[in-house]
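User: Before I run my own analysis I want an independent prediction to cross-check against. Here's the chain; please return only the structure tokens and, at the end, one sentence I can use as a sanity check.
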Amino acid sequence: MSEENTRIYTVNLAKAWDTPKYRRTDRVINIIKEFTRRHMQTNKVKVDQDLNRHIWSRGKKNPPRKIRLRMIKEDDDTVVVSSFIEEKGSELSGESVEVEEPKMQEEKKVEKVEKEPKDKSK
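Assistant: Structure tokens:
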């Protein structure tokens, strides 16, 4: 896999909101395929399974508005489209580390302090 055959794009998927709610995610897949055909000059487009799951994860009515894609053109002019995950690390040492997903904030536990009943006998 060479650098010449790999491209990274951010695709705006807002056109999908012009279609009816029950067709939005289908339209997003078609937008991605149209974009890939136009920019990579080929008719053979394959959408990666992980990308497809990411797009469909929020249901049919609420797909993402933008998505970052990595397009890899293979020897037989087939383009494989997958989601792009940025790698960060020191470029000088050649090491790369995947960016961690944002962690959910942990709920703080609040302990109730019980008050001792006052003695009225005194």
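Sanity check: Residues 71 and 81 are 5 Å apart (CA to CA).
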